[in-house]
Design a protein that fits this description.
Pfam families: C2 (PF00168), SMP_LBD (PF17047). The protein contains four helices and 19 strands. The chain has 416 residues and is α+β, with helices and mostly antiparallel strands.
């Protein structure tokens, strides 16, 4: 029988720190006021064995859940008291990939890998209702919550990201199951043209945010009062799976209070050939979700240069070591108050990966995101999340960080 009470407790302990980790800048606090999964059990509608190889079985499971949960989020924003928001009519449909690592000793399974497949795209449908208040109290709150849920799913659970769970309490080597850095993407943000003007007086003050994973964003400098800005700034990002991941490019207008997004675009990494430079011009959209695109007017374009480098074994090991060092550096930066919201994009990072340059930390060093975060005692006891060990300590934003690197316009390494 499905143990809903135990599952609710594990999910709350696991997911609540992620809500804080991925909390959008417009929200100051996002927590569960109430979480109960109800009484309707999930359904497994199909199971397919995808591969059988020595010591390993890979299966895809069709999972559906149309339950009766009681989920209430406590949402706070600047100058707004906590508003209880209820998630109603929750429907979940996804395909779960499960990889069993086999062992000779009972229970004959030493570890399990769990991830959501990107195709067909995971569906999580729900409606939002304010309890004793109005959703209009926090402008854009529905979109913020939708984006937070989508980001957590795609950045933490969707393949190639995965949960690695050792089984049986016996120490086992799960290194071959864990997600590893695969390559380095060098991104040069060249310029933008014909940007949308968001100002009543004067012109927008644009800057660009680029990232592969939302927690590891970097941004260019701000160009004041210009709809055709030129940046020529270069960054390095780590890719973990070129076949499934994409580069996101967002252009913002710096403003008093919350910055306004001028446009967004994506470019799939699979379209790049390793070691082959490529210059592209991306047309900017108001949203990547075509159902939310209400403004059909041209938002201009952004020109970028890309170069993908595939890691060799030695570079991959260096990248993994750099992650551990950045974890410690990020803890110090958070304690010093340098890191605020982990969804903020800052102008730089604390490490160069695969270059042999040391990872130093100093005042003014911009760090993007605080890593994967401890997801509570539920998953931390299970073992490793995306190949990173969880300690279950109280720091909500401790965790491994993928190194991201900023380079000066002249191509030299940025001093740290």
């Amino acid at each position: 029988m499905f143990n809903f009470q135990a599952a609710s407790a594990v999910i709350k302990e696991s997911v609540e720190p992620l809500l804080e980790e991925y909390r959008p800048p417009g929200i100051t606090s996002l927590k569960f006021n109430k979480l109960s999964l109800g009484t309707v059990a999930p359904k497994i509608e199909g199971v397919r064995v995808q591969s059988l190889k020595k010591g390993q079985i890979t299966m895809d499971i069709d999972f559906r859940w149309g339950g009766d949960p009681s989920i209430i989020l406590g949402v706070e924003a600047a100058l707004v008291a906590s508003i209880p928001i209820q998630l109603k009519d929750l429907q979940v449909f996804t395909v779960i990939r499960v990889i069993f690592q086999l062992a000779e000793e009972i229970p004959c399974i030493s570890a399990v890998v769990v991830a959501l497949l990107s195709e067909p795209k995971p569906r999580i449908d729900y409606t939002l209702k304010a309890v004793g208040g109005s959703l209009t109290a926090i402008p854009g709150i529905s979109d913020m919550i939708d984006d937070t849920v989508k980001t957590i799913v795609t950045d933490m659970l969707q393949w190639p990201h995965r949960i690695v769970v050792p089984i049986g309490g016996i120490p086992v080597d799960t290194s071959e199951l864990e997600l590893k850095p695969e390559g380095r993407l060098t991104v040069t943000v060249v310029k933008a043209n014909d940007l949308k003007n968001m100002e009543m007086i004067g012109k927008s003050d644009p800057y660009v945010v680029v990232y592969i994973r939302p927690l590891f964003k970097v941004k260019t400098k701000v160009i004041d009062n210009n709809l055709n800005p030129v940046w020529n700034q270069t960054f390095e990002l780590i890719a973990e799976d070129r076949e499934t991941q994409a580069l996101t490019v967002e252009v913002f207008d710096q403003d008093i209070g919350q910055d306004k997004r001028l446009g967004i675009a994506k470019f799939r990494l699979i379209e790049l050939e390793p070691e082959t430079p490529k210059e592209i011009t991306l047309n900017l959209l108001s949203s990547l979700d075509t159902l939310k695109v209400k403004d059909k007017k041209d938002r201009g374009n952004c020109t970028i240069k890309l170069l993908y480098h595939q890691f060799n074994k030695e570079e991959q090991l260096i990248a993994l070591e750099k992650e551990k060092r950045i974890l410690e550096e990020r803890k110090k930066l958070k304690e010093a108050g340098v890191i605020g919201s982990t969804m903020d994009a800052l102008d730089g990072a604390a490490s160069l990966v695969g270059t042999g340059i040391g990872a130093g930390v100093g005042a003014g060093v911009g760090i993007v995101g605080s890593g994967l975060g401890a997801v509570g005692s539920g998953l931390s006891k299970a073992g490793k999340f995306m190949g990173r060990t969880f300690t279950g300590h109280s720091s909500k934003r401790s965790g491994s960080s993928t190194p991201v690197n900023s380079i000066h316009e002249n191509g030299g390494a940025k001093p740290l």
